[in-house]
Design a protein that fits this description.
The structure is a single chain. By secondary structure, this protein is an alpha/beta fold. The strands form three sheets. A six-stranded mixed β-sheet has the order 6-7-8-3-9-10, sandwiched between helices. Helix 3 packs parallel to helix 5 (about 135-150). Helix content is about 35%, strand content about 30%. The mean pLDDT is about 85.
């Protein structure tokens, strides 16, 4: 089955010569959640805007559901829902009318049953007659999602969907995204919150300076690129390491009562057994052992630094 979104050699250069996208290639499978991570100015919003037809590419092509976004714009755009970063809503209009209008803008016939379904799905049904100005920031964000879903798109773009939302509402939004995925909607989100990608994404893409550095299954990324640390708590503090341990890659922390050993999970041998034997030979008494896995945030920061 062909990917629902296909981006080929996409380039965007603005007047003045600034290149926001440089030959981006990306395929997104139907029904997946892809998190697009990148620092400010990396090209995340430009990429989404170009796929959605808001920004015209300088070169390259985009196909959504098999439809070219330039030569078959209407068909491609009808498959896309976009939730922008900004809370752009008419404050004096009701929730129901706001969502109805969005459906009509796509030429869809009136269907209050579908609108009700969407509002209930987003826990907005009891707010349907409320004016937008009466809603909290989190509820307004949900209205934006309802607007994007009003015309029954197959692909939903969420540009910083939880920006400015507190932790509790952010987690509620994650639940909403997961429920949407269960209905078959493909979801692409940009985010600055690394934990957001770790919590809900199937795959993670990293973009910097207008180029995709990688797109990979989240679990595979963690396993292949993440390093583990072995924390060794010792009974007697040390200020310097014995000569036999200097080349072991150990660091001393916690006022000399903890040794840190970093190892690659991909290596054929971790070296832990030999290290523990050397510690015993030096009469260093261990009181506790624990391991920690590199977080996605650490991996992300490392990738972006490499591209700088």
């Amino acid at each position: 089955m062909a990917p629902i979104v296909e981006v080929s050699n996409l380039t965007k250069t603005y007047k003045g010569g600034f290149q926001a996208l440089g030959g981006v290639n990306l395929e997104i499978e139907e029904g997946e959640i892809l998190a697009l991570l990148g620092p400010n100015g990396a090209g995340k919003t430009t990429l989404i805007s170009t796929i959605c037809g808001i920004v015209t590419p300088t070169a390259g092509s985009v196909r959504v559901g098999g439809h070219d976004t330039i030569t078959d714009y209407r068909a491609a755009r009808s498959l896309i829902g976009l939730v922008p970063q900004e809370l752009t809503l008419e404050p004096f209009e009701t929730v129901m009318n706001t969502v109805r209008l969005s459906r009509g803008l796509f030429g869809k016939p009136k269907d209050d049953a579908h609108i009700e379904k969407v509002l209930r799905q987003l826990s907005l049904w009891d707010k349907k007659d409320n004016k937008i100005m009466m809603l909290s920031g989190g509820m307004k964000r949900r209205v934006l999602i309802a607007k994007a879903l009003s015309h029954e798109p197959r692909v939903l773009f969420l540009d910083e969907p939880t920006a400015g939302v507190d932790v509790e509402l952010r987690r509620d939004m994650w639940d909403v995204v997961e429920e949407l995925r269960k209905t078959g909607v493909t979801i692409i989100l940009t985010t600055h919150y690394i934990e957001e990608a770790e919590a809900i994404a199937d795959r993670v893409g990293v973009i910097a300076k207008g180029e995709i550095l990688l797109v990979q299954d989240k679990a595979e990324l963690m396993a292949q690129m993440g390093q583990k640390q072995l924390q060794i708590d010792i009974a007697t503090p040390v200020s310097t390491l014995p000569v036999s341990l200097v080349d072991r890659g150990l660091t001393v922390e916690e006022s000399g009562t903890r040794l840190i050993y970093t190892y690659d999970t991909r290596a054929e041998r971790t070296g832990i057994t030999a290290l523990l034997n050397d510690l015993q030979a030096e009469n260093i008494q261990m009181t506790d052992l624990s391991t920690t896995q590199s977080s996605l945030e650490e991996i992300f920061v490392g990738l972006v630094k490499e591209s700088a």
